[in-house]
Amino acid sequence: MTKNELIEKVAKKANLTKRASRDAVDSTFNLIRDSLVRGEKVVITGFGTFLIRSRAARRGRNPQTGETIQIPNKKTPGFTAGKTIKRLIK
User: pTM score, two decimals?
Assistant: First the structure.
């Protein structure tokens, strides 16, 4: 499902105009994004948890030269599905 399809479905389901639906979806995504940028985790009960994961520094290999390189640590966004979603997908 694309973002536009999500907006259309929210508009139909909640009896909203497309503009109001787009504002609601954009606001939700922006709030999740802003919380993650601040380092907070976002828990949506019955759906899942958005959080920041840290990847440790490690050694890697340049595939062209075979040279060993140091890959720095980095933070990545992550999502863990909630129990309700996991049960529905089984």
Answer: 0.79
